[in-house]
Amino acid sequence: MEDINRRSTLTLGLATAAAIPLFAFARSAGAAIPVYGPNDGSVLSPGVRWVDIGEVESQIAAYKKVTFGDAIYEPGAADPVDQPLMDKDMFCYILQSDFKVQKAGIAAYIVKQGECYTCGKGKSDQGTNIGSGIGIMRVAMFEPA
Fold first, then answer.
1. How many domains are there within the chain?
2. Is residue 34 part of a domain?
3. Per the domain annotation, does 32 fall within a domain?
4. Which residue range(s) make up the domain with 122?
5. Where are the beta strands (DSSP E) in 12-80?
6. 8-state DSSP, 86
7. Which of 118, 74, 117 is nearest to 97 (CA)?
8. Cβ–Cβ under 8 Å, residues 138 and 111
9. 88-106 in b/e burial notation, b at 16+ Cβ within 10 A?
10. Contact indicator for 68, 82 with CB cutoff of 8 Å
11. pTM of the entire structure?
12. How far apart, in whole angstroms, are the C-alpha atoms of residue 114 and residue 97?
């Protein structure tokens, strides 16, 4: 058995301390997908519901606050084609399933679970859940200052 001295104890302690946040992140990543019931939130369109999460003051000078929510899509559900233009800048993160995103003037593209995309104020966007299960899109909406 090797002798344990101050240097080896310090090395072991630093290695353990460095690994702890990685284990905590790995555990919390799996728990990040919420479970919603069929009546949670409010109906946005057929097969699509909205659940408010909350808001925080923005640390970005161009924005006063950031509002968060989850859009929950049944399999095959899509945003309406004729929806109004975005009234805020948005950041969309796909928590669950895969989505086809169609924006005016560009080809449709796929955003997979764990990926994100952005939407600008005054632009249009239509998301469709192309997965076989419930799709959840976490949306951050930026309120101008």
1. 1
2. no
3. no
4. 42-144
5. 42-45, 48-57, 63-73
6. P
7. 74
8. no
9. bbbebbbbbbbbebbbeee
10. no
11. 0.77
12. 9
Q: What is the CATH number of the domain that holds 111?
A: 2.60.120.10
In 3-state terms the chain splits into helix, strand, coil percentages (rounded to 5) of: 15, 40, 40
Q: Is residue 7 part of a domain?
A: no
Name the percent of the chain lying above pLDDT 70.
78
The encoded tokens of residue 66 equal 């950031």
- Render pLDDT for 90-132 as a digit per residue (tens, 0 to 9): 999 999 999 999 999 999 999 999 999 999 999 999 999 999 9
Residues 120, 89: contact at Cβ < 8 Å?
Answer: yes
Nearest to 66 by CA among 119, 144, 125: 144
Q: Give every CB contact of residue 72 below 8 A, 6+ residues apart in sequence.
A: 36, 40, 41, 48, 49, 50, 51, 134, 135, 136
Banded pLDDT at 14 (limits 50, 70, 90)? very low
Phi then psi for 10, rounded to 5 degrees?
-65, -45
Q: State residue 83's pLDDT score.
A: 86
Does 4 map to a domain?
A: no
